[in-house]
Amino acid sequence: SRSINLAVIPGDGIGQEVVSQGLKVLRAVLPQDVKLETREYDLGARRWHRTGEILPDAELESLKGHDAILLGAIGDPSVPPGVLERGLLLKLRFAFDHYVNLRPSKLFPQTATPLAGRPDIDFVVVREGTEGPYTGNGGSLRTGTPAEVATEVSVNTAYGVERVVRDAYERAKARPRKKLTLVHKNNVLVHAGHMWKKIFDKVGEEYPEVTTDYLHVDAATIFFVTQPERFDVIVTDNLFGDILTDLAAAVTGGIGLAASGNINPTGAFPSMFEPVHGSAPDIAGQGKADPTATVLSVALLLRHLGYETEAARVEEAVAADLTERAGAAARTTDEIGDALAVRVAN
Ligand code: IPM
Ligand code: MN
């Protein structure tokens, strides 16, 4: 019989609240014969304050044994910036070689968007997840003096670029429009930018059915707002992808709806699914957080594990729920989770 051995990292702030709803919907949508086992990992700000630990080796090792990871949010104002982000979230993405950071953007019917009359936003950003300016390569000189210097060096390997570009071509090929846009800044970042473009063009020779395009990242931000329908699949580096996907979320109903998957396509390590949003400490514990981004991340998780029917059912439930939401009274985190669980069970 089938089974899913899931690691759960609720993390900080609203993480616990939204992850509970994600699990609720997951349990409701899974067929009877699928055995769901979950193990919760106590990682994040509370753990750090209590023990000083961020991600002990034993837990990293144990996480490897799961089929997938569901993560809520990492980061808390009581911890210096970067400690948990680098030591936990990015450490997991790097250790488990999550080189495809998949972030779909779809404008569901009835969803509030600042872009009036644009019903046709449906693209996916393939953000590189293990390289670029996120590697921590850089340093500080003469700290605390007027002559201080800080460098943050973007690392781009042909190996790393080619594998994510190839994954993006495969995704574009599988979609009806078959269009892939490379976003970079090769008019200024000539070293990395030219390598990305060269590899993008070379791999593209193997995908004659895919239409390609190139945009500088600044121009891409304009088109996200003025012409989002021009995008199908986008491939870009780690930092550009981080920024673009927040903008993408803002134009498709807000950060409360944006899902993501940190994917290791080879299956060598478990992939990790998490809402794009952060820990939102200002509203934590108040039942105000929208769990929809986590629920949609559960849909990505289901699809990744081969449960396509169930993934689609979750997405349909969200679409229906969002349609009903328009003009209705605000609901709590729990109420939204309950409503979605009821929908997917039917
Ligand atoms: C995200 C977040 C992270 C990132 C932070 C918290 C390290 O902003 O998942 O988009 O920059 O990747
Ligand atoms: Mn981000």
UniProtKB/TrEMBL annotation:
Domain Isopropylmalate dehydrogenase-like: 5-340
Site (Important for catalysis): Y134, K185
Superkingdom as given in the UniProt entry: Bacteria
Gene3D superfamilies attached to this UniProt entry: Isopropylmalate Dehydrogenase
Enzyme Commission number: 1.1.1.85
Sequence positions that bind substrate: R93, R103, R127, D218
Free-text cofactor note: Binds 1 Mg(2+) or Mn(2+) ion per subunit.
GO molecular function: 3-isopropylmalate dehydrogenase activity
This protein's UniProt keywords: Amino-acid biosynthesis, Branched-chain amino acid biosynthesis, Cytoplasm, Leucine biosynthesis, Magnesium, Manganese, Metal-binding, NAD, Oxidoreductase
Signal sequence, start to end: none
Binding site for Mg(2+): D218, D242, D246
Recorded catalytic activity of this chain's protein: (2R,3S)-3-isopropylmalate + NAD(+) = 4-methyl-2-oxopentanoate + CO2 + NADH
Pfam families given in the database record: Iso_dh
Spans through the membrane: none
Pathway: Amino-acid biosynthesis; L-leucine biosynthesis; L-leucine from 3-methyl-2-oxobutanoate: step 3/4
Subcellular compartments: Cytoplasm
NAD keyword on record: yes
Residues engaged in binding NAD(+): G278, S279, A280, P281, D282, I283, A284, G285, Q286, G287, K288, A289, D290
Cofactor: Mg(2+); Mn(2+)
Tagged with keyword RNA-binding: no
HAMAP family linked to this entry: LeuB_type2 (MF_01035)
The protein's assembly and partners: Homodimer.
Role summary: Catalyzes the oxidation of 3-carboxy-2-hydroxy-4-methylpentanoate (3-isopropylmalate) to 3-carboxy-4-methyl-2-oxopentanoate. The product decarboxylates to 4-methyl-2 oxopentanoate.
Family: Belongs to the isocitrate and isopropylmalate dehydrogenases family. LeuB type 2 subfamily.
Protein name stated in the entry: 3-isopropylmalate dehydrogenase
Species annotation: Streptomyces tamarix
Organism phylogeny: Bacteria, Bacillati, Actinomycetota, Actinomycetes, Kitasatosporales
Gene: leuB
